[in-house]
Description:
This protein is an all-alpha fold. The protein contains 8 helices and 2 strands, in the order αααββααααα. β1 and β2 form a beta hairpin.
Amino acid sequence: MARRPRERYFYVRLLAAGTVKRTEELQHLVTGQAAETGFKAPASNGSYSEAPEGRKGCMRYVAMVVTVGLLVVGVGVYTAQAAEGKAARDGRLIELPGRESAISASFPLWQNKVEQARIAYVALQEQERLKQEQERKRAEAVASFGEWGPYLVEAAEQYGQDPAALYRTMICESGGDSNADNGVCKGLFQFNPGTWSGTPFGGQSIYDGPAQIKAAAWMWSQGRKGEWTCS
């Protein structure tokens, strides 16, 4: 488990402190043995004579060298662990602040979620575009064919007919009055009740305006447009 920067700092400090303590213990041991055997360091131009307090100064010098060496090693360990932590963050392991353990996270999974969110956003944009297009067509239909315009356009698109032709026939037959009744034929397109019952919309009221428009468009798509002579 990779240590966090603050933990690695105190780890190196502890290594250094431990090394100094053990060096001082070695220094006392060597000094004591030298006193028992009568050994004295030669007083030459070497470092013994120049070191403060003689042998103690020399031992401190050794301790300093060892400490510096350990600090160099500690910095190396710190650098290696820092590189490991960076690789973990760039790769597959993410260490959460305040937790001891690392959580394995799959980067491709997050990529997949981002892609799904992008696709959903594009779909919403497309729905909004279609909605605006329908509203535009409805406004144009109302402007062109009055209150029945949206139904005429819808039926014409559904059955492949011309909404303007449906509109002209409707106005000619009933003047756009869904309750028009000449005693035999009824509704916007003046359906005969027998003819009306034979359409897919025969179960609805013969005075239902949108149903009459769809029934007329359906009959035209079946090749029965000639049953209307008024246009």
